[in-house]
Amino acid sequence: MAIEEIEKYSLPDSVWDIGIYDAHCHPTDNYKRLPRGLQQMRASKLTIMATRLDDQEKVHEAASQFPDRIVPSFGYHPWFTHLLYTSQQAPTSKYDHYRAILFPEPPEEFLDLLPDPVSLESFITQLTTNVKRHPHALIGEVGIDRSFRLPKSGKQISFVESDSSSSSSDDDAKSEASSCCGEADQRILSPFRVTLEHQKEVLLAQLGVAAKFERPVSVHGVQAHGVLFQIFSELWAGVHIPSKKEKNREKKLLNEERTESSDNSPRPPPFPTRICLHSYSGPPDQISLWTNKRKIPAQVYFSFSIVINKRYGDKFNKVVQTVPDDRLLVESDFPVAGERMEWLHAEIVLRVCEIKGWGVEEGAKILKNNWHEFVYGHNDWN
Ligand SMILES: [Zn+2]
């Protein structure tokens, strides 16, 4: 949605006192505005997503500077996966790389515009470093986007810093800000897309890091709901999913083992155990598939934003109604910290509470709990 369309919604002070938790946003896209933007906002915490090579460090810095307000999330967004090569060896030329992962096959003049790709392995090393630096960092924004096409200019979609000039009012942001995840069609796009196989490889490598370090993941999915479900459910293929009874028995055994040996560390689960489908736009009847623990034995959350979800009309109401109360999150998915982000927080909280039939304070408490469970929660695997 265009930045001018954001309406001024507000919440009572009592709700801000309970706390509003943004599960997914991108204010490092307008990094220099962040300190002032945070001052203007009452949200308790922002979960800030990294998306590409050049914003991982910004998210690290922002989280280090404002540890009470920001939870960092490191990852590589599907819109930029063409810039990574997944082989061990560097491709002999960038032309070979792009011809292998883009379709339909682009002409040489288009490939001339694209930079040399970087290795996925080096990105995963950087991701691991960031995750170790921040014990509560998430993995994200990761995912699959089958509708995304590369910009005609060959330049990656990125955002001009809104504060390079001396002025820094919200109106400056107006002309320059655009959501990382919502407004691709405003730009002139080429017909070239990244193959699903390539996107999947980049996603799986990052899910491996999430599993290893037991971190939640924030997932982007466009025209890929079936595919994403398949990718996630395949992670558990061939693995015995223990029943509650078996889990309890195993827990008991594990406790006994622990008292006998000095090893107190719980076994890490082999897969990510907390997953958020951000700005969820899939069909309502898929929700019960994701929350079926026999298929995906993780806690799956569904997060909603005004920026993306408002345009879904009646479907939005149906989806929010269907999501279990304890799996619902809210987000702004917005690239600028400040009063507009706050209006988006207020509007999504009001909308969700209205659809769910919750009082606003009651809703804020539920949403706060859900966010804490998603970000800091224990895993359910062992
Ligand atoms: Zn996003």
From TrEMBL:
Annotated stretches, region: Disordered: 159-179, 247-273
InterPro entries: Metal_Hydrolase, Metallo-hydrolase/TatD-type, TatD-like
Biased composition (Basic and acidic residues): 247-261
Gene3D superfamilies: Metal-dependent hydrolases (3.20.20.140)
Pfam families: TatD_DNase
PANTHER family the record matches: CUT9-INTERACTING PROTEIN SCN1 (PTHR47345)
Name of the protein in its database record: Metallo-dependent hydrolase
Species of origin: Myxozyma melibiosi
